[in-house]
């Protein structure tokens, strides 16, 4: 007669497993939050770069002087005719803001150049994105960690 001696898990073993699962879950949550913050910064950079590029195209196509404006709260931006307020302000994702803006807003003109040149810096807890407008009207961005 053989008896099957099955043994359950001890309370200590269960606590160790639960502690391990909790630690891995917490680490995963922090990793996810970091990735989400990087994604927000990337989206903000893409949206702003797109707006600046569109302003340049609009200036050439419509033979107008078009400016890139940053709202005083540094969490919104807009495109407008020179020295006018934008009709629509575009919000940056939460946690992202402009940490640096040019003293005078860059203006694109019908011949595709910009004056003055300037650098905008978008920033959150995961890094910075610089959007650089040159006098030739060229627009580029670079990511800083």
Question: What's the CATH H-level homologous superfamily?
Answer: minor pseudopilin epsh domain
Fraction of residues in H or I helices: 25-40%
Helix/strand order, N-terminal first: HEEEEEEEEE
If you average the pLDDT, what whole number results?
90
Which blocks of ≥5 consecutive residues have pLDDT under 50?
none
Gross morphology: rod-shaped
Give me the side-by-side strand order of the main sheet: 3-2-1-5-6
Architecture, according to CATH? 3-Layer(bab) Sandwich
DSSP strand count: 9
- Would you tell me the structural class of the helices and strands? alpha+beta
Report how far the terminal alpha carbons are from each other: 70 Å
The first-level CATH class is given as Alpha Beta
Could you characterize the architecture of this molecule?
This protein is an alpha+beta fold and 145 residues long. It has one domain (11-144): minor pseudopilin epsh fold. The chain has one helix spanning 11-62, and strands at 66-70, 76-81, 90-91, 97-100, 107-108, 114-115, 118-124, 127-133, 139-144. It has a 5-stranded antiparallel beta sheet with strand order 3-2-1-5-6, covered by helices on one side. A hairpin with a 5-residue loop joins strand 5 and strand 6. The longest helix has 52 residues, at 11-62. The model has no long low-confidence stretch (mean pLDDT 90).
């Amino acid at each position: 007669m053989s008896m099957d001696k099955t043994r359950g898990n001890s309370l200590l073993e269960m606590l160790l497993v639960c502690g391990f699962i909790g630690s891995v879950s917490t680490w995963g949550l922090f990793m996810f939050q970091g990735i989400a913050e990087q994604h927000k910064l990337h989206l903000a950079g893409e949206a702003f770069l797109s707006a600046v590029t569109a302003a340049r195209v609009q200036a050439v196509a419509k033979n107008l002087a078009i400016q890139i404006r940053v709202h005083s709260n540094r969490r919104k931006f807009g495109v407008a005719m020179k020295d006018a307020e934008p009709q629509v302000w575009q919000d940056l994702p939460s946690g992202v803001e402009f940490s640096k803006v040019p003293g005078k807003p860059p203006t694109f003109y019908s011949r595709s150049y910009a004056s003055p040149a300037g650098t905008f810096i978008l920033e959150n807890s995961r890094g910075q994105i610089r959007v650089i407008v040159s006098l030739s009207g060229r627009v580029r961005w670079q990511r800083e960690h």
